[in-house]
TrEMBL record, chain A:
Subunit annotation: Part of the neuronal tubulin polyglutamylase complex which contains TPGS1, TPGS2, TTLL1, LRRC49 and NICN1. Interacts with PCM1, CSTPP1 and LRRC49.
The protein's name in its UniProt record: Polyglutamylase complex subunit TTLL1
Keyword Glycosyltransferase listed: no
GO terms for cellular component: ciliary basal body; microtubule
InterPro entries assigned: TTL/TTLL_fam
Subcellular location: Cytoplasm, Cytoskeleton, Cilium basal body
Reaction(s) the record says it catalyses: (L-glutamyl)(n)-gamma-L-glutamyl-L-glutamyl-[protein] + L-glutamate + ATP = (L-glutamyl)(n+1)-gamma-L-glutamyl-L-glutamyl-[protein] + ADP + phosphate + H(+)
Keywords of the record: ATP-binding, Cell projection, Cilium, Cytoplasm, Cytoskeleton, Ligase, Microtubule, Nucleotide-binding
Residues covered by region (Disordered): 391-424
One GO BP annotation of this record: microtubule cytoskeleton organization
Organism encoding this protein: Myotis myotis (Greater mouse-eared bat)
Domain of life the protein comes from: Eukaryota
PROSITE patterns in the record: TTL (PS51221)
Keyword Ribosomal protein: no
TrEMBL record, chain B:
Gene3D superfamilies named among the record's database cross-references: Ypt/Rab-GAP domain of gyp1p, domain 3 (1.10.472.80)
PANTHER family listed in its UniProt record: TBC1 DOMAIN FAMILY MEMBER 19
Ranges of residues in domain Rab-GAP TBC: 251-472
Pfam families hit by this protein: RabGAP-TBC
Name of this chain's protein: TBC1 domain family member 19
UniProt-listed PROSITE patterns: TBC_RABGAP
Species the sequence originates in: Myotis myotis
Amino acid sequence: MMAGKVKWVTDIEKSVLINNFEKRGWVQVTESEDWNFYWMSVQTIRNVFSVETGYRLSDDQIVNHFPNHYELTRKDLMVKNIKRYRKELEKEGSPLAEKDENGKYLYLDFVPVTYMLPADYNLFVEEFRKSPSSTWIMKPCGKAQGKGIFLINKLSQIKKWSRDSKTSSFVSQSTKEAYVISLYISNPLLIGGRKFDLRLYVLVSTYRPLRCYMYKLGFCRFCTVKYTPSTSELDNMFVHLTNVAIQKHGEDYNHIHGGKWTVSNLRLYLESTRGKEVTGKLFDEIHWIIVQSLKAVAPVMNNDKHCFECYGYDIIIDDKLKPWLIEVNASPSLTSSTANDRILKYNLINDTLNIAVPNGEIPDCKWNKSPPKEVLGNYEVLYDEELAQGDGAERELRSRSGQSLGPRGIRSRDSGRSFLTTWK
Amino acid sequence: MWQEESDLSLSIAQIVQKLKGSSLYAQLERQAWASLQRTDIKLESLKEDIKRFFKTSGWEKKLQNAVYSELSVFPLPSHPAVPPEHLKEPLVYMRKAQGSWEKRILKSLNSMCTELSIPLARKRPVGDQKELLNKWNEMGTDEPDLSHFRPVYAPKDFLEVLINLRNPNYENGDSPSFRTHLGLIQIPLKVKDIPELKELFVELGLTTGQLGIDDSTQVPPELFENEHVRIGQKVLAEQDSAAAQQYVRQGSPTALRAELWALILNISSQPEDILYYEQLKTNVIQHDLLVDSLIYKDVKLTASNDDYYFVFEDYLYQVLLCFSRDTSVLGHFAYNSASPPRSYIRGKLGIEEYAVFYPPNGVIPFHGFSMYVAPLCFLYNEPSKLYQIFREMYVRFFFRLHSISSHPSGIVSLCLLFETLLQTYLPQLFYHLREIGAQPLRISFKWMVRAFSGYLATDQLLLLWDRILGYNSLEILAVLAAAVFAFRAVNLMEVTSLAAAEAVLADLSTLKVMPLLQIFLFATVT
């Protein structure tokens, strides 16, 4: 094997990427040449693995997406996979799938009630009528950055998705027009009276066995306008959506802090105002729902050994300190809105590359994908299926008092290890 | 200390008189009357039985906390004939200097007023009142035109005043000698040296467990943290102010801090406190003060741009606007060298009957004032509690950071302490910085005036403020400032200008406060 410099390609012109490649002394090439590392956009990955192009990657080539990542990153497919996963667990009698007296999953209810439109329109209407004062959020399946999202609280607002509507111009089942409609979290946890969501980065190096890492430096994105659940503000997207792309255009957007808080600030605030136990429980639950979402899609994922992926998880916490998974992004934004942001994203890519391309050398995708602890940087092991299974001890899913929720993760703080979870 | 019996009885008499006017007294009276119903209270031994009842029901503890609070805050006169000005400030030249500084501030405020043709205060039109009430929780979204307002003064203006402060009774000779103080402050006040500081801050020593050091990820919690938390919970269960104050010297666990600080400051949210806050809120709605614009401007310039505190912008308005109207704050001027500025009703200049304090609480905010409140928002999310805590912190500690006095926790002493520590224990660094025109105090002054708020990461700041409360002193601010310089000494020795020195010390957000303090006090060869 010729020892040479890693040859890289990208179709995303972002400095946080390019600077990282250059600092490793890697050589830029074009797509048509021999390359080792391709950081591609989601459009490109579609082409690379599509049947028509018949691309075959060789052992020394790595890409930054799994071929069918959309099983997790498309809103409708994510929900579909999680629902399927839950049913499977229920069928096999797993204690994870236990339900409460109202029929709600005790440990796996972390995605707000969601339906596909127009396919599930009638199911949705039935649910809507049960609580007619609820608000729902409509999201187009294929778009990102908050585009095309709106809120509704009346059936008339989504008339055109009704299948038997006479005015429906909707004929084809083209996935481009598909929407998901989810119950809107109307009681989000507010800080300083403001709504926020959590953005966490999760790196997956393999799905079977599942090995994933959580980036320690996630952040909270605050809305610039005060949150009000009043119906008159439904149209004001600055109140409701926390995407930075939308907030950036609000009048009060600040370019110094960008309306962002570190997760450690959130932790300090919650511990100070709510207590240490409930805060610890919240963060355990967040780790739990991320791992469950990955386990849900693992069986259907094409676990191509040439692939790794860094996801952007969007999570909302409600005022009872329950986290909800809103969506998973395959291409988290690499645009920087502030100086702090640029540093964060630069380090994120740096740590990701250290794990995905060991020693910065020409990769061999047959390697065991088990990086040594020292290269993790700001990542922590979130879940390692191999290690969890090799560990003979049976783990209880509930504490003696029957209170806790499944996650009995050892917090890295207490044991000094870099493992966040050890449940199977 | 208590040298004579008469000292003691004088102090007791004073405290009793103060507490007699408090709501605690009324509550105790009510409780005493109610206790007569109890079967264990007998007429023959009425006094003893009621005393016992107070002990077992926790009321004695509340009284104890109130007395302790008075002792911590109010300086007790050592002689019954001491004039009130001496309580404010014993040294005449300091009083005079503070007086002229106040005149300047007021003049600046009045001229801004005249320039902009805005009254110092006016009643709000009813329409505006309604609007403000609706927007009460989101005043941050308001965008009033503040371009013509400027802060009344900034810390660096205040520093110039302190630099020019002189004791007319002190003559240090014509020629500068090795005894001449090389720093900016030229006042002969007594400040502590490191051996004395080690005695004062004994709990920060190397052999005592600390939060901020011994709770880091590498240290197993069984060694210190778990036990410390357990003791903290016990202190809270006992509701003992003095014990809490002692406890937080080793740092407060994050989950217990809000309650511990409230206990130390003797704040309990009674219905009358909440009512009082609501009343202040009504005052804000009804009257518009010029200082309101100054507050808005300050928040917009400082807290809104801060990575940690921008989230709480709206709470800051809710606290500071009410604070300006709170006349109970006037009480602290009895022991503050400052005096509340006076203004006169329009057209009645000079006529005493028409004199009012302006603003009603007597405190004119300066650039960075809102940063005193901001860190507290991490602990208290209920506005009236947040308000009470801030007010108490102000009248116990923060006021000393911007008034001229000889008090050991006053800003003048802190500056002198900082410079003396640096000159004594880092003479080479001090001399070098002085030679390149970078007097260290010019850089560290703003840190101390703000009690490091906005300069340190919030978790570190809270650990620092734990110790301010624990030791009931601000001296730790000067020690930390010196410790920071010691920490960055190597880089500072290489700079050749004030600007470069500022750059080395521009970012303190990664500093860990407790190790710095410990090393400086206990691990440096002196």
